[in-house]
Write a structure and sequence with these properties.
This protein is of the alpha+beta class. The chain contains 18 helices and 33 strands. A hairpin with a 3-residue loop joins strand 11 and strand 12. Helix 10 packs across helix 11. The radius of gyration is 28 Å and the shape is globular.
Length: about 750
């Protein structure tokens, strides 16, 4: 049954183009109800206060979606904020993803859903002391909507306030706000008068209660060091009421040459913002810039996060003080990716702290060992994963904030082992499904409006629609992960023939993405067609599990045909480079076992010739580790995984930024990307030996095949599986496992397989 909404979408049409509107509603209570709930959606993001107190500590609500397909709303218990007599509900709504003002390569400023910020909400309370007839009369009076008699028997709550034309609205002091560009707040300008809110058309998507956890502050950091510089700022002519709408701050970075400045180093890359406590003279603008690099003068260098294309302003907030004493500034309606914060302007800064926040996911498992290099890499993986969770699974928290499908599925295996990701992936898969075209074609980012269908999309990225549900099914054992998106999967399978040439090869999309400059990789056709074949194989398994026998057989035949094509086109004489050899092994291009062993031996030799430096693209860099391990060269794979020089994961760790990089060498890329995080899953499989059995999903059965090495004295893992806590400890040649009841495992030790059941210690 559809949920009943007594409120309507409202907007403030006279509000400045990028000024956040403020909505207000007063109501009177004779007594405080025992239970009251606020149901609210403010697009793009909202902050809500009831009687001057925040309704929630959650940030950047509601979750980002394709607003033409679905719109999230939130529910908050608010009885403790109500009072007898007059109550005031105030909501400020920022642009978020709904009304992006900044031009860039991703076209969100042209999104089909782009409209003025708008609000829908209703405050409901348990009915106490009123007859049904009185209750529905109150509802109709407040909402302006008739409640049909057939629906009246279903209602059990009283409407205290519902968004409509009886609300007031005005432009707030948030004079400019953009998710990527930053915000501008004028504390000195006079408050605008209120006027009546206007009914809005609404975003078009179906309303549903938000299921993905909220964004919450996880950690507060103090600066590790400070760098100061600049001269005394001349008195600004900017006073309260300055025209932010037409000011240059919207189109200029203006790093503040000649002004007083101070850069605060928080020691590692995070996603969030800074809380600044200061004293400033009324009308003297203060700017706050965020970044992950410094230039030679010790100031923030933003040149590499201004790409796609070069934009004049990014991650910069501005504040005009009221000049009334100590003031505190936090930037609502945006978040940044940063290590450094630069405060520019003539003010007395009393305190600067950084808030690290992301979608709230609980820790599910961890791996630690005697080799600190492994632990460092695991820390990088965790930090990069969490700082790229903001409703969607983003690529980086500064430059783009986009939900790239390739990045998402590349980190899925390790993410589900370490964090409770079920609601995150459910939300993300809905975004992918909502973005799919009727032909079956997918974009390379989700959510999206008009960008991403005709360049980066292709099997290497599109595979997220299949790989994420499959991973979640194997982990949880719940078929709903396969059933729910099966129609979208089938639609994509009908699309695949359109992107193959006369040979059956696919070259549409990205191949072995972002190798180190000068490092050769396999042909795009090999990587893309290989992924296409894996999608067919996964789809055959999914169809069989769901009882779709005809589909299962059809997709199995297609996968076999694709492998034959790969062997014919790419398997006869593989080029002697790391990417090609590893991909040839991964996609099973060898027509005999002896040939595969020869390729693996050559791969190990070639890696040694390269001083165990990989440097290939995001896919084959993992294939190298996996295939060497499969063919008995684990020690060589471990040597490459723990390579301390560039290119290498340990090299990234040793630079002290605390996150994985987009590019092996850092270079012009982001310093906070998680697409190279699959090495953590490889550590779980090799050092701890954990391999999930897809034939008996949901931890009914585990395959435990640890790789023993004298280079790592001990390894410890804990994991809260769907069936209970699992603990594994390897010390020297000893391997101890504790399994919960209901879990069986096949353990490979000293050349033979041993069977064990939950509740025992082996």
């Amino acid at each position: 049954m559809d949920k009943k909404w007594y409120g309507k979408w409202i907007e403030c049409p006279w509000c400045g183009e990028n000024t956040a509107p403020e909505f207000r509603r007063e109501f009177v209570l004779e007594h405080v109800p025992g239970h009251a709930v606020l149901e609210i959606s403010g697009l793009g993001f909202y902050t809500a206060q009831l009687n001057g107190k925040r309704v929630t500590e959650a940030l950047l609500q509601p979750a980002f979606t394709n607003y033409t397909r679905r719109v999230c709303y939130n529910r908050y218990p608010v009885s403790g904020l109500l009072q007898e007599g007059t109550n005031v509900l105030e909501v400020t709504v920022g642009n978020g993803w709904f009304h992006e003002p900044g031009a860039d390569s991703f076209d969100f400023e042209h999104a089909v859903w782009k409209m003025r910020p708008m609000l829908l909400c209703q405050l409901l309370a348990d009915q106490e002391g009123s007859t049904g007839q009185e209750m529905f009369a109150e509802q109709e009076a407040l909402s302006g909507q008739h409640v049909p008699e057939e629906q009246q028997v279903l209602a059990e709550q009283q409407v205290l306030a519902a968004s409509g034309t009886d609300w007031q609205c005005r432009g707030s002091r948030w004079k400019f706000n953009s998710l990527r560009l930053g915000v501008s707040y004028d504390a000195a300008c006079p408050e605008e008068p209120y006027d009546k809110a206007v009914i809005a058309k609404g975003p078009g998507g179906c309303l549903e209660e938000q299921s993905i956890p909220p964004i919450m502050v996880e950690e507060t950091l103090q600066p590790k060091s400070e760098i100061r510089g600049g001269s005394e700022l001349e008195k600004s002519e900017i006073q309260g009421g300055y025209d932010w709408e037409n000011s240059k701050i919207q189109v200029e970075d203006n790093s503040g040459k000649g002004e007083r400045w101070c850069v605060y180093d928080f020691g590692k890359s995070i996603a969030g913002d800074a809380k600044i406590t200061f004293r400033g003279e009324r009308g003297r603008k203060i700017k706050i810039r965020y970044g992950e690099r410094l230039d030679r003068e010790g100031r923030i260098d933003q040149q590499f996060i201004k790409r796609h294309p070069e934009i004049p302003r990014i991650q910069m907030d501005a504040y005009i003080p009221a000049g009334t004493g100590t003031e505190v500034f936090e930037s609502d309606f945006t978040y940044k990716g940063f290590r450094y914060v630069e405060v520019i302007g003539d003010c007395q800064v009393e305190k600067v702290t950084a808030r690290s926040f992301h979608t709230q996911v609980k820790k599910r498992g961890a791996l630690v060992c005697s080799d600190e290099r492994v632990n460092q890499i695991m820390d990088l993986v965790q930090s990069s994963t969490l700082s790229n969770l903001h409703h969607t699974i983003t690529d980086c928290p500064h430059r783009e904030k986009n939900g790239w499908l390739g990045d998402a599925h590349m980190s899925c295996g390790q993410s589900v082992m370490q964090f409770e990701m079920e609601k995150v992936y459910e939300h993300y898969l809905n975004s992918i499904a909502d973005s799919q075209w009727p032909s079956g074609q997918l974009p390379c980012i989700a959510p999206t409006s008009v960008y991403g269908y005709n360049f980066q999309s292709g099997p290497t990225w599109d595979g997220a629609l299949f790989r994420i549900p499959w991973t979640m099914y194997v982990y949880t054992g719940d078929k709903v992960w396969l059933e729910r998106w099966y129609p979208q999967m089938k639609r994509y399978m009908e699309y695949l023939p359109w992107i193959r040439d006369h040979r059956g090869v696919c070259e549409s999309g990205l191949g072995d993405f972002l190798p180190m400059e000068g490092v050769p990789v396999c042909p795009d056709g090999l990587m893309l067609t290989g992924h296409l074949g894996e999608i067919q194989e996964i789809m055959s398994r999914i169809s069989g599990i769901l009882g779709e026998g005809g589909d299962a057989e059809r997709f199995k035949v297609q996968a076999e045909e694709t492998r034959d094509i790969l062997r014919r086109e790419y398997g006869k004489n593989p080029e002697r480079n790391l990417s090609y050899l590893a991909s040839a092994l991964h996609f099973d291009l060898a027509d005999t076992e002896e040939k595969a062993k020869t390729w693996a031996a050559d791969l190990a030799l070639l890696l040694k010739e390269h001083d165990f430096r990989i440097g290939t693209g995001i896919f084959s860099s993992l294939y190298i580790l996996e295939e060497l391990t499969r063919y008995g060269y684990f020690e060589e794979a471990l040597e490459a995984a723990l390579q301390p020089e560039c290119p290498g994961w340990v090299y990234m760790a040793n630079q002290g930024n605390g996150t994985l990089w987009e590019r092996w060498e850092g270079g012009k890329g982001s310093l906070n990307h998680h697409m190279r995080s699959g090495i953590a899953e490889w550590f779980y499989r090799t050092l701890a030996g954990i391999c999930l059995d897809w034939r008996k999903p949901g931890f009914q059965h585990l395959i435990l095949k640890p790789c023993f090495t004298e280079k790592i004295a001990w390894v410890k893992v804990w994991l809260n599986s769907p069936r209970g806590r699992i603990e594994i400890c390897r010390e020297g040649s000893q391997y101890r496992v504790r399994l919960p009841e209901g879990v069986q495992a096949s353990v490979y030790m000293k050349g033979e397989w041993l069977e064990m059941k939950g509740g025992t210690l082996g």
